[in-house]
Amino acid sequence: MPTAIFGAFESGIIYAIMALGVYLSFRVLDFPDLTVDGSFVTGAAVAATMIVSGINPFIATLVALAAGFIAGCLTGILHTFGKINALLSGILMMIALYSINLRIMGKSNVPLLNTDTAITHVRDAWDKTGLDSIFNSIFTAVGLGDSVPRTWGILIFMIIVTFAIKLLTDRFLQTEIGLALRATGDNKRMIRSLSGNTNLLVILGLGLSNAMVAFSGALIAQQGGFADVGMGIGMIIIGLASVIIGEALFGTKTIARTTLAVIGGAIIYRIVVTLALRVEFLEPGDMKLITATIVILALIMPKLIDKTKEKKRKAKRQSERIAMNPDGKGEADASFKSHS
Amino acid sequence: MLHLNHIHKVFNEGTPDEKIALDSINHTMNEGDFVTVIGSNGAGKSTLMNIISGVMLPDMGTITIDKQDVSTISEFKRAKMIGRVFQDPMAGTAPSMTIEENLAMAYSRNKNRTLRKGVTKQRKDLFREVLESLHLGLEDRLTAKVGLLSGGERQALSLLMATFTEPSILLLDEHTAALDPARAELITNLTKEIVKKYHLTTLMVTHNMQQALDLGNKLIMMDKGQIILVVDESQKKKLTIEQLLNEFQRIRGTKLASDRALLT
After folding, report:
1. Cβ–Cβ of B94/A183 closer than 8 Å?
2. Strands, E, within A4-127: which ranges?
3. Cα–Cα distance between A266 and A243 in angstroms, integer?
4. How many domains does chain B have?
5. In-domain check, residue B264
6. CB < 8 Å to B115, chain A
7. Which residue of chain A comes nearest to B110, CA vs CA?
8. How many helices (H) and strands (E) in chain A?
9. Angle at CA of residue B234, ends B231 and B237, nearest 5°
10. Cβ within 8 Å, pair A175-B91
């Protein structure tokens, strides 16, 4: 089971890039963008198809990122220039991408087994360094010998990639354009009065968001060894779950803290799902139901906790007041007198 | 500086609700003019502001700012020349962002936004310096979220953000109307100070007659989409509220109908 946790951690850190994309559209831009379900697959489809036809997997992954950017921009254009409702423009794009993804792949599933991918390249390069045995011996020394992953290389590589994207995002959101982008989600009227082109900013923001999502999709396809036209179903909810769980557990004080929280949320989500699937009566097909349940809980629980806290606080105050006025009617009498 | 030439705007044209909001307005503001605008409900004051700032485009007529015809230029491009403060104290700032980030966005108003950092050390010093002029102690709270400020503080910040980059035109749309009397007075005084300091060409809509008389060097009165009275500098100094109301009655034959007009 600990090896399964490592697996969950590894894919969690890749899904974290997708969650950062969802954070950008959902939280920063305040735009519920459902394009994600489609653009995740677009990334996977583009990368898988190019890799199978013999193109360098790193280049293929970057092209996948660009494809996601274009898909996001199109959703933005539908919303700003087409004046279509935010949810609807995302759904339209998602549906359109389903067919586009099938066209890209030519079939509904492209296997990547026995093919050189970015992941296998990293694994091979890592194996040459021989660092695995060192890491493994450390873990064995502290008595965790049976919980080592297949290879440390991919895990470390993914952590570096994800944190590079996180730091770039943090940095970007502090630039002049980044500030305007955040203001677009916060107060459109204000940033327009300060010469911000809100239409262009929405398009740019959705482009960047979906570029991250597609990038994540491309890496998941290479890690899992296939691209499938259905692999994006419910992706937006997974992204949202990561954002909400992360924010609730790790806080949102600054941008850097929030993006870190989102990464944490994505990893925790994966671990929770992995653990949940180990419960006897749950099957892999129940995954979407588990996801929906987690999101519902993550949305409701913080409010319930706040409410209970507030109730307790009020009850405490009330009892304090009663303790100060034992006869229980002194206060009312006093206020009455002062008026007369 | 600002030149409005035969501006015409009709809402709901061709329907029973058709309303002429602006009826062939002509008006010129010279550099350094501070014009206050008063008028009855639905006189077209807000529409006039929206037409100048580019929120709406006129059906006919041209708008010139700094000798440049801006009639068809979009709102955000025009904003490079125009500073604006809205009636709603929440409208002029981004609540989830810090004071320094808000000022950084205002700093970029008349420039092109790039991938440079918005808040630099150098800019911070500038922000601190301009915030001091508000006398609200905000210079010590640069990293506080704007959503935590009171309505008066937010409006003072909005005013500062609209002005410290010295726009060609400053538009104030009843910017003290939503504040309590003490806060309104504070903002009024700040407006006076800031407009003088930066020598700004200002157009201010107000429903407070006294404010309209106290501030600025010119006054215009609007009714039913027309400018019905222009008071110049020398006349304005002697003018009283009573005279203003009488003047309206003389021109229009009815009393000034404004449920919000403050006569004191």
Report:
1. yes
2. 109-111
3. 7
4. 1
5. no
6. 172, 175-177
7. A195
8. 14, 2
9. 85
10. no
User: Of B84, B95, B118, which has the smallest distance from its Cβ to A175's Cβ?
Assistant: B118
Put simply, whether A254 touches B (Cβ < 8 Å) is no
Which residues of chain B make contact with A190, given a CB cutoff of 8 A?
A: 91-94
The domain locations on chain A are: 2-230
Q: Least CB-CB distance to A194: which of B106, B115, B119?
A: B106
The answer to whether residue B118 neighbours chain A at the CB level (below 8 Å) is: yes
Q: Please report whether residue B18 resides in a domain.
A: yes
**b/e for A306-332, b at 16 or more Cβ within 10 A?**
eeeeeeeeeeeeeeeeeeeeeeeeeee
Residues B155 and A267: their CA atoms lie apart, in Å, by 42
Q: What is the dihedral of CA B150, B164, B174, B212, to 10 degrees?
A: 120
Residue A263 near residue A19, CB atoms below 8 Å: yes
Confirm if B160 and B134 have CB atoms less than 8 A apart.
yes
Domain that holds residue B148: 2-252
Report the percent of chain A where pLDDT is more than 70: 92
CATH number at residue B227: 3.40.50.300
Residue A229 DSSP one-character state? T
pTM for the full model? 0.88
Q: Which of A107-111, A211-215, B71-75, B250-254 has maximum average pLDDT? A: A211-215
Render pLDDT for A290-317 as a digit per residue (tens, 0 to 9): 888 888 888 888 788 888 888 988 888 8
The closest CB to that of B105, out of A183, A189, A198, belongs to A183
Q: How far apart are CA A122 and CA A36, in angstroms?
A: 27
- B258 part of a folded domain: no
Q: Is the ipTM here above 0.85?
A: yes
Q: B259 and chain A: CB distance < 8 Å anywhere?
A: no
CB contact under 8 A, B93 and A187: yes
Residue B177 and residue B60 in contact, taking contact as beta carbons nearer than 8 Å: no
- Domain annotation covers residue B241: yes
Taking an 8 Å cut-off on Cβ atoms, the answer to whether B97 and A174 are in contact is: no
Task: Tell me the two tokens of residue B170.
Answer: 């400053």
A-B Cβ pairs (cutoff 8 Å, strict): 85
